[in-house]
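User: Please fill in residues for this 264-position structure.
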C-alpha cells in the first residue's frame, strides 16, 4: 500500500507545496489545518497529481497539542508512515512588545505541538522493521537567531534540541528524523514579519526581498532529502557555509546577521 503522509499546516505556504510533492510521489495524504476551504482547494489540486487518496482534517492544533489530530488521523487513515510538523506562527516582534499570550502561543504551536506529535510518532513506530520518516520544519533562526524574533528562534531551537537529544534513541529504530532549517521563504510573511524591522534602505530591502526562497523548490528538496535519510537540512546551500563559519567565528557572523536590522 502507498505510504501515508500527515502534514500539519497544509493549507498554505510550504505545507501546501509539500502536499503537491508527496502527491506526485503517489503517496496517500492527510492534510491538516484550520481553514477548511483552503484545505479543500489544496486537496483538489493534489488529487489531480495522484490516484492515491487525499483526505483533510480540520482543527486547531493548539486545542490539545495535536493529540486529537493524531488520534483522528490514526482512526481515519492509519498510523502515518511520514509526519511533517510544519504548522507554525512567525511570532516576530521585539521582546518588549510581545504579550505573554502571544509568546505562549508561539512556543506552544512551534515547539510543544510538534514535539508531542513527534513523541506520538516515535512511540507508534518504535518497533517497526520498515523505515518511517519524521520531518520537523524548524528555521535557520533555530541556530542563527534573527533580531526581533527571539521567541520565534527559541521555539525553533527546541526542535533542534529534540533532534540532538533523541538521536541516540532513534539509532536503534528504523525512524528517520530530519530537522529542516530554511532561511527566509517567499510565503507572504516578509512585509509583516521582516520589513518593519529592517533599516530603511531601498537597496537593502531589495536584497532581502530577492533572497527569499521559493517554497516549491524547498518542498522538493525536503522530500528527497528525508527519503534519503538525512538528519539536518539547511537551505539554501549558501546557508550551510554560513552555519560552518558560525562555528569558527560566531561574533563575526552575529554582526553580519544583525547588520540589515534596525537598532532600537
Ligand atoms: N516563511 C519563512 O520565511 C520561513 C522561514 C523558515 C522557516 N519557516 C517555517 O516553515 C514552516 C512553514 O512556513 P510558512 O511560511 O509556509 O507558513 P504559513 O504560510 O504561515 O502557513 C502556516 C500553516 O500552519 C497552519 N496553522 C497555523 N496555525 C495553526 C493552528 N493553530 N492549528 C493548525 N494549523 C495551523 C496554517 O493553516 P490554517 O490557517 O488553515 O490553520 C497554515 O497552513 C513553518 O514551520 C515556519 O516556521 C518559514
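Assistant: Residues filled in for all 264 positions:
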Amino acid at each position: 500500500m502507498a505510504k501515508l503522509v500527515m502534514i500539519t499546516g497544509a493549507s498554505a505556504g510550504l505545507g501546501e507545496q509539500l502536499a503537491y510533492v508527496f502527491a506526485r510521489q503517489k503517496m496517500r495524504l492527510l492534510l491538516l489545518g484550520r481553514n477548511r476551504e483552503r484545505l479543500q482547494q489544496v486537496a483538489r489540486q493534489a488529487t489531480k497529481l495522484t490516484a492515491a487518496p487525499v483526505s483533510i482534517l480540520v482543527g486547531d492544533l493548539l486545542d490539545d497539542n495535536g493529540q486529537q489530530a493524531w488520534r483522528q488521523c490514526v482512526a481515519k487513515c492509519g498510523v502515518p508512515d511520514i509526519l511533517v510538523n510544519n504548522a507554525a506562527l512567525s511570532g516576530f516582534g521585539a521582546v518588549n512588545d510581545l504579550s505573554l499570550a502571544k509568546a505562549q502561543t508561539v512556543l506552544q504551536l512551534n515547539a510543544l505541538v510538534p514535539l508531542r506529535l513527534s513523541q506520538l510518532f516515535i512511540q507508534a513506530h518504535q518497533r517497526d522493521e520498515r523505515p518511517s520518516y519524521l520531518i520537523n520544519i524548524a528555521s535557520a533562526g533555530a541556530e542563527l537567531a534573527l533580531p526581533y524574533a527571539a521567541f520565534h528562534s527559541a521555539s525553533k531551537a527546541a526542535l533542534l534540541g529534540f533532534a540532538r537529544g533523541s538521536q541516540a534513541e532513534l539509532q536503534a529504530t528504523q525512524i528517520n528524523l530530519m530537522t529542516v532549517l530554511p532561511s527566509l521563504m517567499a510565503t507572504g510573511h516578509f512585509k509583516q514579519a521582516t520589513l518593519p524591522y529592517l533599516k530603511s534602505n531601498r537597496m537593502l530591502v531589495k536584497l532581502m526581498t530577492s533572497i527569499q526562497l521559493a517554497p516549491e523548490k524547498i518542498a522538493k528538496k525536503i522530500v528527497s532529502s528525508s527519503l534519503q535519510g538525512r538528519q539536518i537540512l539547511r537551505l539554501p546551500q549558501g546557508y550551510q557555509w554560513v552555519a560552518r563559519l558560525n562555528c569558527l567565528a560566531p561574533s563575526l557572523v552575529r554582526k553580519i546577521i544583525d547588520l540589515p536590522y534596525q537598532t532600537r
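For context: Residues 4-188+213-248 form a domain with the Rossmann fold fold (CATH 3.40.50.720).
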